[in-house]
Design brief:
The chain is α/β, with parallel strands linked by helices. It folds into 2 domains: 152 residues, VC0802-like (2-Layer Sandwich), CATH 3.30.2130; 194 residues, Rossmann fold (3-Layer(aba) Sandwich), CATH 3.40.50.150. Helix content is 32%, strand content 24%. The protein has a 7-stranded mixed β-sheet with strand order 2-3-1-4-7-6-5. A 7-stranded mixed β-sheet has the order 10-9-8-11-12-14-13, covered by helices on one side. The two termini are 44 Å apart. The relative contact order is 0.12.
């Protein structure tokens, strides 16, 4: 088995959640920085990271890093990388994304162009050819520049890991699946506790929660770019990883997960997405407004992504909407509430300051994760024993 240094990017502010996930998989973490976690692993770790990690965006094999303040240094640094260890003579290769922060080189298109030329020069010397057909498998690279330090990673994932494969139909402003999973994991919710999302949209929060309760790996029903890299990762490792994931699934677990939306079409979309995810029997979706939010039991969780009022025509409705959220929450005995929003006056109209407030980015939008903490339920007798 080869030993790789692997990079797992994630949403800014979610590094601690991803770190915990990688720890749970049993891999040694080497660095936690803004928006990514780096860890050591072998070929199997590439497969398991892609299949099991709920909060990562992708898994990159770190090819190398170097300092570059000029395009000449970028060219020479890229040319010095051991690219032939990954790219075969017929491979299709390119820099699919370049990101630069606090660096002298900042133009993504120029960085991509220079690095592609350097890659070609390196492989021309290695393979003793003057022209590449690039007719074989795909090898997309991603590069990060931070304070003139260049990190080059080979993307094993392809389409972002937030695309589980179940969300064929979406709401107007859907929350990414991996961000929804991370937000749930920031709460004490477990599969045997009540969870209600009164603004369920296309059903992402309830579906991700149900998958967690059923121990269903998020990537077990999708494909990855590196599956075709037989010279790097034996295809059998992918089969073994999916088999491992399937053996863990338990759809018999009893849950109380509910999703409400005021729009009949959103309820239909949620049900269809839950069916595609294989968890439709674990979730109850219904048309219901937030003003009708209620539950007879104690110690439940509201986890939701309410409207932000980003459109001008919606702004006037925001104060009353958040007042209603606050009123309904106060009527729920011993519940906790977690909501993500960019609406700056959310706490004012909810009528209570959040116990915790976490700033994070949903795409390019700055949002807040307001956390209202209810009491812990008393321990059951069997737990005390």
């Amino acid at each position: 088995m080869r030993r790789f240094e692997l990079i797992a990017p994630c949403h800014f502010g979610m590094e601690s959640v991803l770190k915990r996930e990688i720890d749970d998989l049993g891999y040694d973490i080497t660095e936690v920085s803004d928006g990514r976690v780096t860890f050591y692993g072998d070929e199997e770790a590439v497969c398991r990271g892609n299949v099991f990690l709920r909060t990562a965006e992708r898994i990159l094999i770190k090819v190398g890093s170097f300092h570059a303040e000029t395009f000449e240094e970028l060219f020479q640094g890229t040319k010095a990388l051991p690219l032939e260890e990954y790219i075969p003579v017929d491979g299709r290769f390119w820099v699919t994304k370049a990101a630069s922060i606090k660096s002298r080189l900042f133009s993504p298109s120029d960085i991509q162009s220079v690095m592609k030329k350097a890659m070609v020069e390196r492989l021309k010397d290695i393979y003793h050819i003057s022209r590449f057909e690039e007719s074989g498998e795909q090898f997309p690279f991603r590069v990060f520049l931070m304070k003139d330090e260049v990190t080059v990673g080979l993307d094993t994932t392809g389409e972002s890991l937030h695309k589980r494969g179940y969300r064929k139909l979406v709401a107007k402003a859907p929350i990414a699946e991996n961000l929804a999973a991370a937000l749930i994991m920031l709460t004490p919710w477990k599969g045997d506790r009540i969870l209600v999302d009164p603004f369920c949209g296309s059903g992402t929060f309830p579906i991700e929660a149900a998958m967690m309760a059923a121990h269903m790996a998020p990537g077990m029903n999708r494909s990855f770019t590196a599956e075709s890299w037989g010279h790097i990762i034996d295809r059998k490792l992918w089969y073994d990883t999916v088999d491992e994931a399937r053996e863990l699934v338990d759809l018999t677990v009893e849950t109380d997960i509910q999703g409400y939306d005021i729009d009949d079409e959103m309820v239909r979309i949620s049900r269809e997405n839950a069916r595609l995810a294989g968890v439709e029997k674990m979730i109850h979706f219904q048309r219901r407004s937030v003003a009708e939010l209620s539950h007879p039991k104690k110690y439940g969780f509201i986890i939701t992504n309410p409207p932000y009022g980003e459109r001008l025509q919606d702004k006037e409705a925001m104060p009353q909407l958040y007042r209603t959220i606050g009123e309904r929450y106060r009527q729920l005995d011993s519940w906790s509430m977690y909501l993500i929003t960019s609406y700056e006056q959310a706490q004012e109209y909810i009528g209570r300051k959040a116990d915790k407030n976490r700033k994070l980015y949903n795409g390019m939008m700055k949002t807040y994760y307001y956390q209202y903490l209810g009491p812990r339920p008393p321990k059951r007798r069997e737990e005390q024993r």
